[in-house]
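Figure 3 (text version): C-alpha cells given as input.
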C-alpha cells in the first residue's frame, strides 16, 4: 500500500512488437494508475583507439541500464580516494566497466589487479578473477597463458563507500625454457602452490622419483609446505602386464600415455597404491603429478613387469570371460574418469582374459533428464566399440519416475540403429527400442543367448522373454535385469516386503514384476537358463549370490553386484567371470581398474564347481501331458523341443489297452507330438514312450509312461439370459432386479456388503454326468484393486426358480454343501474378460447339483455369491453381450 508514487525503469528493446503488461491493485481512498514511456536518446559510446579502454560508469552498484558516463581511457590506474571518477558520477555506490581488445604475443602473462571494493576480470569472456565483494584496497596476482592474436579484456568494478581504487596491469612472464631430458629420465617441475599453476619455480632432470623430504622441501627455492610437482618422461616398455607402484603424502595422480590410471588427489599420510596395466612393446609417456599440503612430504614411483605366475589376470587354458558392469550412475554423474578407466581396462585386457561379452546391469546414469550424464556414459561405453560385444540395460534411474516408462534418452544415446547391425544382435520386444533385447555370442564351444530386460519387466515383456528362450533351447541363456537378487542372497520380493503392483507402485510403475515374480514367471521355466546378473540394491558389501534349481532340475547361478554406495560412487569395481567348460568351472572376481585392487572376501571372490549345466541338458526330457483330443487323435506334450526323426517314429510309442497308431507328427515348436490312431473307446489308457530324444540328443528315460483318459466330452457356454436372472440383495433384504452392473459384493450406495444371485436356464446337462470343468466368467465394468474375497455357493434345487423382488428372495434359498472360495486379482482394464475375471473351478458345485435324483437335462441352476471387498462386472441390463457366462464340461 502506498500514496501516489512515481517509478522510472530503463529497458533496452529490439526493434519490433513487444508485449507490455502492468498489474495494479487499489486498497482504499485515492486510486491512481498511470503508465507511459518515451524513447531515450542515448549517445553512442565513443570510439576508442587500439589498446585503449572504453570506460563506462554507472550511478548504481550493478552496472545496470545505460552508462551515465562513457569515455576513452588509456589505462586503468585509478585511486579516487573519497571522490568519484567525474562530477556526473556519485562518490559512493557507483560501478564501472572497462573494455579493450589487445594484441598479445603467445606466452604466459601475469595480471595485477587492485580494487576497493568489488572487481571481476574477464579474458575472452572467461571469468578468471571473481572478487565481487566489499573489501579494502587488495591486490590480486594471477597468470594466464594466451595464444598469439587479439584478446578481449574486460574489468568490472563497484565502489560501495569510503575509498575507491581500481587498477589493472599485466606483463609477460619470461621464464627459462625447460631443460632437455634424455629418454628414460623425467622432467621435474616444482611449483610454490598446490595446484601446479603459473610457471614452475624450479625445473630439472631426475632419473627416478624416489623422494622422502620429511618436513623439508625439494630445493631452497621451494617452500616446505603447499608446493606441487610434475614429472614427465618417455620410457621403453616390453609387451605384457606392468605393475606401477606409487607412494605419496599427500595428493598423487598418474598418467600412462595421457590416460589417467591413478587419481588419489587428496590429503593423506604416506600411502602406497598399485596399478597393473597391459602395455605394448613401445615407448610410452609416464606423467606423475603431486602436491604437498603440510607435514611430511613423500613422492615415489616405480614399475616392474609382472611375471606370468604372478599375473592376477591370467586365466586357465580353454577358459573365456564375460565382464559385468554394475550400476554406473555415480560415475556418469560425478566420476566419468572412473567409468573410462573401467572400459579402457576391458579394452586393454580383452585378449588376455579372452573377454567375449560385456554386460551392463542398468542404472547407467543418475539423472535420466541430465544429458551431460548420458553423454559421459556414451563416451565411456563407446571405448568398447569394435573391441567386444556389449549392450546396455534399463535401470530405474534410466527413466523418469513415471508409469509411462519414458526411455527416450536411453534410446537416444544407445539407439537401436547402433546395435541392430551388429553380428551379436538378436532382436527386440518393441520396434526400434532397446529396452528389452537379446543378443548372441559363442565361446568355449557353447552358443549363448543374452537377454536384457527392463527394470521391473511388464507381464507382456515376460511373455515375450519366455517365447524367446523357448525358441533358443540350443543356446545357453544369460538373463540381465536391473532388480532381481537382494543383498541377503534371496530373490528380491520373496521376503516379507510387499510385492509391487497397482496397490503398491514402485517408481510410478504399476505393471511391474519383482525378482520373485520374474523367477516364477520366467527363470525357473527354462532348462537352458544358466546365469542371471542384476544390480539395484546397494547395501552392506553390495553383493548377493543364490543358486536355485529350475523346474527341470537345472541349477541357475544368480548374482547381484552394485557398489554405488562405496567411495567415489563405487571406486570402479566390476566383475569378470571366468568360464571353463571343460573343467565345468565358473570363477567370479571383483576388481577395480581405477584402484587396481581386488575385493577378496567370500562374497566378492568365489567359484562354482561342477557346473554340469555348461554341457548339454543334464536332465532327460519329460512328458508333461497326454490328452485325447478326439477318438482318433492323441497329443503328447514334452518339456522341451524334441528331435524330429525319433519323435516321428511310430514304433517308439505304444498304448495299453492296445490301439493301432498310424502316424506320429512333431508339431510346430517341437514340444508336442500328435499321434493318429484307430478309434479309441471311452476309458483309461497308458502311453509308453521309448527311444525319443530331445533337440540336443538326450533320450527320454526308458519305458516312460503317462496315464490318460479318453472321454466323450461335451462342453457348454451359457450367458445370463434375462434381467431377472442376475439380482442383488442388499443388507436390508431388499432385492434389486434391474441393476446396470453387478457389484461383487460391496454396494457403494448403502455402504454394505450384499449377496449376488446368478441364474442360468435350459442347461442340457444329463443327471449324474461326470463334470470335468466348470467356471463363471465376468467382464470388468469398473476398475478396482481393493482386496476382495468371495464365497461361491449354489441353490440346492433340481430346477432353480427365477429371482423375484420379494424380500430376502436370494438369501433364504437352500444352499448346497459344496462351496468355492475366490480371492480376486485387481481389475485394471474396462471390458477385460480374462483369467483375472474367471472364478476357480466349480466342478464340486456342479457335481452336487446334477447328482440330485430329481435333476433333469434342461433345468436351471442358481449361484449365490457373498463375501467382502469390491469388484464391479457388467450385468445383463448393462450389456447383454458381456453379462456373466457359465462354462461347463462333462463326460457323457
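Below: residues designed for each position.
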Amino acid at each position: 500500500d502506498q500514496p501516489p508514487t512515481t517509478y522510472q525503469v530503463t529497458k533496452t528493446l529490439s526493434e519490433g512488437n513487444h508485449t507490455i503488461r502492468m498489474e495494479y491493485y487499489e486498497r482504499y481512498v485515492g486510486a491512481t494508475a498511470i503508465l507511459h514511456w518515451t524513447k531515450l536518446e542515448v549517445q553512442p559510446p565513443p570510439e576508442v583507439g587500439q589498446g585503449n579502454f572504453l570506460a563506462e560508469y554507472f550511478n548504481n552498484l550493478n552496472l545496470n541500464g545505460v552508462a551515465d558516463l562513457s569515455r576513452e581511457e588509456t589505462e586503468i590506474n585509478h585511486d579516487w580516494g573519497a571522490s568519484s571518477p567525474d562530477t556526473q558520477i556519485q562518490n559512493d555506490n557507483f560501478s564501472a566497466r572497462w573494455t579493450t581488445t589487445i594484441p598479445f604475443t603467445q606466452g604466459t602473462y601475469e595480471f595485477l589487479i587492485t580494487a576497493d571494493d568489488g572487481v571481476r576480470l574477464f579474458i575472452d569472456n572467461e571469468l578468471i578473477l571473481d572478487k565481487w565483494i566489499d573489501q579494502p584496497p587488495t591486490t590480486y596476482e594471477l597468470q594466464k597463458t594466451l595464444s598469439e592474436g587479439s584478446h578481449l579484456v574486460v574489468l568490472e568494478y563497484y565502489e560501495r563507500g569510503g575509498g575507491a581504487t581500481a587498477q589493472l596491469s599485466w606483463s609477460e612472464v619470461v621464464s627459462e625454457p625447460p631443460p632437455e631430458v634424455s629418454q628414460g629420465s623425467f622432467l621435474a617441475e616444482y611449483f610454490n602452490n598446490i595446484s601446479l599453476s603459473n610457471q614452475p619455480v624450479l625445473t630439472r632432470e631426475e632419473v627416478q622419483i624416489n623422494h622422502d623430504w620429511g618436513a623439508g622441501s625439494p630445493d631452497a627455492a621451494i617452500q616446505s609446505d603447499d608446493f606441487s610437482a610434475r614429472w614427465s618422461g618417455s620410457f621403453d616398455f616390453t609387451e605384457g602386464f606392468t605393475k606401477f607402484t606409487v607412494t605419496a603424502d599427500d595428493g598423487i595422480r598418474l598418467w600412462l600415455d595421457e590416460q589417467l590410471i591413478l587419481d588419489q588427489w587428496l590429503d593423506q599420510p604416506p600411502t602406497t597404491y598399485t596399478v597393473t596395466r597391459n602395455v605394448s612393446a613401445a615407448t610410452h609417456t609416464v606423467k606423475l603429478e603431486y602436491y604437498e599440503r603440510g607435514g611430511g612430504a613423500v613422492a615415489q614411483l616405480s614399475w616392474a613387469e609382472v611375471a606370468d605366475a604372478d599375473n592376477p589376470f591370467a586365466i586357465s587354458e580353454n577358459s573365456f570371460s564375460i565382464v559385468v558392469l554394475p550400476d554406473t550412475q555415480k560415475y556418469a554423474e560425478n566420476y566419468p574418469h572412473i567409468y573410462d578407466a573401467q572400459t579402457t581396462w576391458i579394452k586393454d585386457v580383452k585378449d588376455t582374459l579372452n573377454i567375449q561379452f560385456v554386460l551392463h546391469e542398468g542404472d547407467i546414469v543418475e539423472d535420466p533428464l541430465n544429458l551431460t550424464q548420458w553423454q559421459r556414459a556414451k563416451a565411456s561405453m563407446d571405448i568398447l566399440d569394435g573391441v567386444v560385444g556389449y549392450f546396455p540395460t534399463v535401470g530405474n534411474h534410466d527413466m523418469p519416475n513415471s508409469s509411462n516408462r519414458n526411455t527416450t534418452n536411453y534410446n537416444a544415446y544407445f539407439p537401436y540403429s547402433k546395435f541392430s547391425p551388429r553380428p551379436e544382435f538378436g532382436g527386440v520386444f518393441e520396434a526400434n527400442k532397446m529396452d528389452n533385447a537379446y543378443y548372441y555370442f559363442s565361446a568355449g564351444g557353447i552358443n549363448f543367448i543374452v537377454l536384457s530386460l527392463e527394470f521391473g519387466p511388464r507381464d507382456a515383456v515376460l511373455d515375450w522373454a519366455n517365447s524367446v528362450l523357448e525358441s533358443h533351447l540350443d543356446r545357453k541363456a544369460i538373463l540381465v535385469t536391473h532388480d532381481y537378487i537382494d543383498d541377503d542372497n534371496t530373490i528380491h520380493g520373496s521376503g516379507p516386503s510387499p510385492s509391487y503392483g497397482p496397490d503398491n507402485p514402485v517408481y510410478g510403475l504399476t505393471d511391474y514384476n519383482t525378482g520373485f515374480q520374474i523367477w516364477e514367471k520366467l527363470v525357473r521355466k527354462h532348462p537352458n537358463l544358466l546365469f542371471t546378473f542384476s544390480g539395484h540394491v546397494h547395501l552392506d558389501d553390495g553383493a548377493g549370490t543364490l543358486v536355485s534349481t529350475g523346474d527341470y532340475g537345472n541349477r541357475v547361478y544368480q548374482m547381484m553386484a552394485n557398489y554405488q554406495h562405496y567411495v567415489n560412487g563405487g571406486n570402479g569395481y566390476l566383475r569378470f567371470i571366468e568360464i571353463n567348460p571343460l573343467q565345468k568351472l565358473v570363477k567370479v572376481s571383483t576388481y577395480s581398474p581405477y584402484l587396481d585392487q581386488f575385493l577378496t572376501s567370500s562374497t566378492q571372490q568365489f567359484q562354482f564347481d561342477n557346473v554340469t549345466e555348461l554341457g548339454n541338458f543334464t536332465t532327460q526330457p519329460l512328458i508333461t501331458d497326454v490328452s485325447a483330443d478326439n477318438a482318433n487323435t492323441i497329443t503328447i506334450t514334452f518339456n522341451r523341443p524334441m528331435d524330429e526323426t525319433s519323435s516321428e517314429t511310430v514304433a517308439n510309442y505304444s498304448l495299453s489297452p492296445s490301439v493301432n497308431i498310424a502316424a506320429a507328427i512333431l508339431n510346430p515348436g517341437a514340444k508336442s507330438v500328435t499321434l493318429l490312431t484307430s478309434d479309441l473307446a471311452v476309458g483309461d489308457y497308458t502311453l509308453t514312450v521309448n527311444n525319443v530324444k530331445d533337440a540336443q540328443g538326450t533320450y527320454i528315460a526308458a519305458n516312460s509312461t503317462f496315464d490318460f483318459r479318453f472321454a466323450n466330452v461335451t462342453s457348454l457356454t451359457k450367458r445370463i439370459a434375462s434381467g431377472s436372472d442376475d439380482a442383488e440383495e442388499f443388507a436390508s433384504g431388499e432385492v434389486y432386479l434391474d441393476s446396470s452392473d453387478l457389484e461383487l459384493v460391496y454396494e457403494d450406495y448403502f455402504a454394505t456388503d450384499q449377496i449376488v444371485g446368478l441364474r442360468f436356464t435350459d442347461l442340457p446337462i444329463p443327471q449324474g454326468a461326470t463334470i470335468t470343468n466348470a467356471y463363471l466368467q465376468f467382464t470388468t465394468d469398473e476398475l478396482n484393486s481393493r482386496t476382495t474375497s468371495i464365497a461361491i455357493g449354489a441353490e440346492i434345487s433340481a430346477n432353480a426358480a427365477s429371482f423375484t423382488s420379494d424380500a430376502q428372495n436370494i438369501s433364504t434359498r437352500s444352499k448346497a454343501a459344496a462351496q468355492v472360495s475366490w480371492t480376486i486379482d485387481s481389475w485394471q482394464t474396462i471390458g477385460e474378460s480374462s483369467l483375472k475375471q474367471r472364478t476357480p473351478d466349480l466342478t464340486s458345485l456342479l457335481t452336487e447339483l446334477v447328482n440330485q435324483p430329481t435333476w433333469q437335462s434342461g433345468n436351471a441352476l442358481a449361484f449365490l455369491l457373498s463375501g467382502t471387498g469390491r469388484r464391479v462386472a457388467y450385468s445383463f441390463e448393462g450389456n447383454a453381450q458381456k453379462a456373466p457366462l457359465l462354462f461347463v464340461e462333462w463326460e457323457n
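Residues 496-503 have pLDDT under 50 and may be disordered.
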